[in-house]
Amino acid sequence: MGKKLQQSRLKQKFSRTSTKEGGTVKIFGDELNPSIPYKTFLLSLNDTAEWVVKEMLNKYGMKYEHPITYCLSQIILPPYNQMDNKSIKQVILHDKECPLHIYLNHIQKNQ
Question: What is the CATH number of domain 2-109?
Fold first, then answer.
């Protein structure tokens, strides 16, 4: 019952959020726990990579770990028809970078 109520509240929160204010992003943490490949986050445009790392550790039950020893990276995949291992890029985000802002800019550039 509690989980259903939480899901309902999150759904309401997600539906009220537009891309001007924020949005949902899947953050893949399979390096932290292979049995849980990703977590979905509701991010504002101003949420930083540092904040996301702290929240990820918390969601994966690692809240006592030191966030400074972890990082958030962005993996950029080429279009499906151009896919090969050489064209996959991985960039480590700086603590003060905003993942949702970066994501939305990337989508806007590639439309």
Answer: 3.10.20.90
